[in-house]
């Protein structure tokens, strides 16, 4: 008699179900942001005037945030590398760095928003600011989601059973894929809203 | 000891720290390039093309190296092809270059965009008729506006 086992819930495609699930989730996220970018293009083409990012927004702060987010992409991939090598100390260090950089991004963003609100600027000020607050706000929510997941992984690394679980590496990889996607969204948001 | 399927699935993505650092440096340099380009006050079409080109290169580096898409299983690539197809459906209608160019270079007259709005206004029935010479016949009363008159908007 043949025994069929669900060995780590593998698919027959060479990737795990969890990883396939993360990619499908990211596919839906791509469509979400593609819709927003399309809306941005339509509104911008239909507007009689559109402010230059350097005049309307704080470009140096946004550039700093870009550097922070790119750095966090490196730190999370380093955390994955350490998890791959079963180096728990290294994993905790790089994941903690990722979390610190994530909070750094939010703090810089909070300064930016705070300055705009202090000037009486909000989403209802103009179409440009409506687009700006909607897109950067949604991106910020995604950052918060990533912080929650990465914090959970860091917490789990302190539990021997979770750390040694055969699926832990896949969880780190999934979190990393999500975080890199958030980085890619910002890579397009930054020039679209601040520079062009 | 035989490896689990999960471990085998990750063997394709053995971390390469040196490559990660190279991409990190490239991303920082490209970010600076984007910012510098925007300071040159290039014409909008050129600035947008250059800015998007740099952004696509940066996103490609992140996806290929950090997300391990380079060398990923074909199933993931197929998922992304489907996404690209539907995203193209969203974006392609915006690539009506004739419309874009006409928007940039000249504004279409309102009459061409909305013929109803550009039409000559009808004579107002309430307007007092000009005093006619004594020999001319008396003016007819103005007709009511036709029911089929187009509405604005």
Any chance you could write out the topology, listing elements then pairs?
The complex is a heterodimer of chains A (196) and B (153).
Chain A: H1 17-46, H2 53-56, H3 59-84, H4 88-118, H5 127-156, H6 160-163, H7 168-195
Chain B: H1 5-11, H2 17-39, H3 44-66, H4 74-91, H5 97-105, H6 110-113, H7 115-118
Helix pairs in contact in B: 2-3
Task: Describe the fold and architecture.
The complex is a heterodimer of chains A (196) and B (153). By secondary structure, chain A is mainly alpha-helical. Helix content of chain A is 78%, strand content 0%. Chain A has seven helices and no strands. In chain A, α1 (17-46) runs antiparallel to α5 (127-156). Chain A is elongated, with a radius of gyration of 20 Å. Chain B has 153 residues and is an all-alpha fold. Chain B starts with a helix and ends in a 35-residue tail after the last helix. The longest helix of chain B has 23 residues, at 17-39. Chain B is built from seven helices and no strands. Chain B has helices at 5-11, 17-39, 44-66, 74-91, 97-105, 110-113, 115-118. In chain B, α2 runs antiparallel to α3 (44-66). Chain B is flat. Mean pLDDT of chain B is 70; it is low at 118-153. Chains A and B meet through α1, α3 and α7 of A and α1, α2, α3 and α4 of B.
